[in-house]
Records
---
Amino acid sequence: MEEDVKEGASDKYSLRGRVFSRLREDILNGKYEEGIELREIAIGEELGVSRTPVREAFRQLELEGLIRIIPNKGAYVVGISDKDVRDIYILRSRLEGLAARWAVDHITKEQMEEMEENVYLAKFHIEKGHTEQMFELDNRFHELLYEASGSKILEHQLKDYHQYVLRIRKKTLSSATRGPQSNTEHEAILEAIKNKNHDDAERLAHEHMINAYKNMIDNGLIKPD
Amino acid sequence: MEEDVKEGASDKYSLRGRVFSRLREDILNGKYEEGIELREIAIGEELGVSRTPVREAFRQLELEGLIRIIPNKGAYVVGISDKDVRDIYILRSRLEGLAARWAVDHITKEQMEEMEENVYLAKFHIEKGHTEQMFELDNRFHELLYEASGSKILEHQLKDYHQYVLRIRKKTLSSATRGPQSNTEHEAILEAIKNKNHDDAERLAHEHMINAYKNMIDNGLIKPD
DNA sequence: CCTTGTATTATTGTATACAATCCTTGGAGC
DNA sequence: GCTCCAAGGATTGTATACAATAATACAAGG
């Protein structure tokens, strides 16, 4: 029964939690475009709730930087610029390297086993071209790495960024060449951790992000500098 | 009149903003100890407001990781463990290095001038042993560095961490030896940026954090590993 | 025609009322 | 005395009512 213990602030079973998750997803997926104004009543009616949970969700979204609230005026969708995406990938490249380094000493047997299963299963879905499953497995691999780092702070931070660039990542992975290469890199990172090689783990995780970054630019998903 | 444009989510002039700032400060300063339960009504009465702004502030504090809300039960202060502080310093060491590197290319003339003034003025207050001013100048130096990086993402992140370890930093800087050394290191970072030396800037900023970290441990302010 | 001031309206900010949930406490049964 | 359960109280979750603020429209004066 130890389910849902982590549930940071999403809280699936409260109205506020659902509103928050829904709005975040809608913003990241581009349903609400940048600059658009979100009205409490309208959102409330759309989701069938009153203003109270909507307001609380707004406050959280603001803290996440997804909307900007101007007092007594309104809430405006901020969106993510190409520069933000580039910056996040550079930050991630450094922090994921650190996560991999720390994971060498802190990964549990269960986490290791799930990682191995993850990489193995991914091969299958890549073969079949199941993009949705590839996406989910990629998500989970990185989350596992964050959790295995043994640092709540680092885990929290990387999960945030991971969420943040969700939209762009969906496009990236469906690319025919990046999918397989990404999983090969996952495998290499996993091996380094298994062999307790700190430097390799950090370097490979770092390069993994840099490669993803380059891929985005080469495929024109975001514009360079 | 371009004041208060950044005001992320604090919003000094709304009740919610004040409640949020106040509670964060009280938690970080140790007024509310770890594990203590915060009741909406009690906090509201203490600050003379109703539950609504208190609840909104709670939701934000949860997202910042300072309290943990268990649905239908209560809000509990999380506090910062020694491990969290150690982790943050390691993360900061890497990210501040990056900030310094980026600052080389993005710092404005005004920022550069304020940095120079900052380092110069700090010498005076160190000489006189004015700990409060030393603290403020140290704060400002780092904020300037973050702003000069030219990356909203990185700036936001580092400011967060900076706030987070506020309590411990106050103690550190008042140490007779660390104060002067810290400012000397600031000066070196500034020089590297001025000379447009990316590698030095990154290395020095990185080392600056590592030194602060070691100092904390050597002085027993937090326990090692 | 343009500017300015004011009234109206829409929207957010805050307080309060009501509903749902959890915890405590006390008593019945054994 | 111990266990279990039920009732009451306390606390959070949600909805709604009211207050404050900002946007808009329109009329009066230049």
Note: Confidence is low (pLDDT under 50) at residues 1-7 of chain B.
---
Amino acid sequence: MADHRSTTRVLDILELIARNQDEKMSLANISKRLQAPKSSLYPILQTMVARGYLNYDENSYVYSIGSLCYEIGSRYLDNGALSQHIDQVLEHITSQCQETSHFAELNGNEVFYLNKKDSPQSIRMFSSPGKRLMAYSTALGKSLLSDKSDEELAELYPNGLYAVTEHTITSMDVLKKQLEEVRRTGFSYEVEESNHYIRCIAVPIRVNGRVRYAISVAVPVFRYTQEKEEQIRNLLQEAKESLEQKCVLPR
Amino acid sequence: MADHRSTTRVLDILELIARNQDEKMSLANISKRLQAPKSSLYPILQTMVARGYLNYDENSYVYSIGSLCYEIGSRYLDNGALSQHIDQVLEHITSQCQETSHFAELNGNEVFYLNKKDSPQSIRMFSSPGKRLMAYSTALGKSLLSDKSDEELAELYPNGLYAVTEHTITSMDVLKKQLEEVRRTGFSYEVEESNHYIRCIAVPIRVNGRVRYAISVAVPVFRYTQEKEEQIRNLLQEAKESLEQKCVLPR
DNA sequence: TTCTCCTGTTCGTAATTACGAACAACATTA
DNA sequence: TAATGTTGTTCGTAATTACGAACAGGAGAA
């Protein structure tokens, strides 16, 4: 593993500030949190502010993420014809079933949320673009993992599966059986395994034959009925076919 | 101006790769483009890939923007209650008038695009989140500049206004008169000044009394009518009032 | 094959950065 | 008022990084 100290520092600063937006991020605090001397971080922060990657409020002594991070980050999705259509697809799904829809990819062993469309009757579920969750605990993740061999799964989770909620799958064998079901039926399910009171249904999206993305709909348990499940499966199936048709390009 | 070399390098790399997605970005090419030795960039790139800020395709020798950039960048908008509502507002506008709507802020002397909702009958206009345009050449920019004093304007454009298209305003006096109109009427307009065949209407959004954001609708000239202009003004006015009510928080 | 052109990788020394301590400026607390 | 706790800033030396050259491996052309 490479470790170029200066580079590591720049990236550590970005992550620290981005992931702790509630905390007052002063130079002194960043220094404490990263266990690095103020005098070392000082010129780095100066440069990052001058370049627009960070903002600095002189009154409150707070560093925050700057617009250049947004500009750079936006380019992550520009590849692939898919991202041009995904907004409309999510919107259609959510407008039809009135529940929150998500679009995600696999990142290591985690689900990486790329986009979402909030339900109008939204029970503000804790999810947003850029968020990560252990794949095996979500419907999206099960769709994204459905492609993997037993060996690949073992490599992704060398220490086994830990429980996120009391309903999370913790047995690799159970997971494998569920993934087999996903391959057979085309749908993955989640019953309060990552969020209390939330159930999810998802489908894998294939690009050039390999699973690359997944779409899901999240439903609060008290609104979950057989009719709704049926409706959502149809919407997801429709979305899957539409997207897979539009995009045969590799990333 | 601070210049911490290592930090500068990291940021240069991100910008180079993000802004030249069509070009094959190999180590050798990055070295050439940044005029920095391969051996210096090598450990930096290694670290950035290891941390997920860049992806590297060993077959094509291409570095690209990684998911962590997306994660970090996504946090730029989390501040402020506004961003939670802006999606719905743009969607409402576009669904009513069937034209593309934009949300932006001022960044130096440039318009910085934060969000958009594409028209269903979209004449794919070249615009996307993270893009920048000279403020004086766009309706969004004129709304965002409407707050500025003559002195501030002079500071923002010390070298005057250059023409983006043949319709771009290049006289500071004309710009000032138009900004006066924006203050009086509440709307700003653009007639093919930044994009050929595109006209725009925009409104400023105030947070705590100061102009902070703007919303616009872009219309191809051949679909532009007085009735449509009237409709769009009403939609924008409605959106403005809705957003300003919901958000009195400073950034 | 052989040559060329592309890629990434390694190494020893010169130049740059990192460190800790000391300082200054301001706000809050005693 | 004085004491304490913030904050950012500066400096000289030790440790790290940057540099250019040389090398290695693969692709394609002569």
Note: The first strand of chain B starts at residue 54 and ends at 57.
